[in-house]
Design goal:
- The structure is a single chain.
- By secondary structure, this protein is α/β, with parallel strands linked by helices.
- It has one domain (13-187): 3-Layer(aba) Sandwich (Rossmann fold).
- It is built from 7 helices and 6 strands, in the order αβααβααβαββαβ.
- It has helices at residues 13-18, 38-48, 52-68, 83-89, 93-105, 128-135, 161-173, and strands at residues 27-33, 75-78, 114-116, 139-141, 149-157, 178-187.
- It has a 4-stranded parallel sheet with strand order 1-6-5-2, sandwiched between helices. The protein has a two-stranded antiparallel ribbon with strand order 3-4.
- Helix 2 (38-48) packs across helix 3 (52-68) and helix 3 (52-68) crosses helix 5.
């Protein structure tokens, strides 16, 4: 498996995606992701073939990495799916990852802290600008107060548009909240 082995410091490849775009405490991912890889196959099964067990296993590994890096958070915020997409899929893959991480870190999940208010087309074939346009104004804050230190969790970081938008949305409403991001996989070029 192509583990990223990032220390979650501010100089790792995932953190560099967000440089100059949003202020983060930490950023990281468990795996490198590329087309036609074992990670792509597993992610595809997890997201589209009802393989929640994959997410639970890898979410647990993500939690282990965070424990090893002595990462301390007050809560986890999974990136939401639009309700129609979640109903079709049966679950939110970011929530599955977040649940396994929360179990390792013994902290709560704020499942309704972010809400996806409109359905977007898949991001998989879009470039950076198209991903931003596809994401912009699609998320809103839920009626949940944010604690002082949160972890945003997503499945894949490609351009970082989704996490960038969500983090900036939180930052505007809660400027004192420290935000970190962690994903199952990071797409490198």
């Amino acid at each position: 498996m192509p583990y990223l082995n990032a220390s979650l410091d501010n100089d790792n490849p995932v953190a560099k995606v967000f440089w100059g775009r949003v202020e983060l405490e930490r950023a990281g991912a468990l795996f490198y992701y590329k087309k036609n890889s074992i990670v792509q196959a597993l992610l595809h099964d997890f997201k589209y073939k009802n393989s929640e067990a994959i997410g639970k296993i890898f979410g647990g590994e993500m939690g282990d990495v965070l424990v090893k890096n002595q990462a301390i958070f007050n809560a986890i915020v999974p990136v939401p799916l639009h309700p129609k997409k979640q109903k079709k899929r049966g679950y939110n893959q970011s929530e599955i990852l977040a649940e396994a991480i929360a179990d390792k870190l013994k902290i709560p999940i704020l499942k309704n802290a972010l809400v996806k208010q409109s359905h977007t087309s898949t991001q998989t074939k879009k470039n950076r600008n198209d991903r931003w346009d596809n994401t912009a104004e699609k998320f809103v804050l839920g009626n949940v107060p944010f604690p002082e230190n949160i972890l945003l969790v997503d499945d894949v970081i490609t351009t970082g548009a989704t996490l960038d938008f969500c983090a900036n949305l939180i930052r505007e409403a809660y400027p004192e909240t420290k935000i970190s991001v962690f994903a199952l996989a990071y797409t490198y070029r």
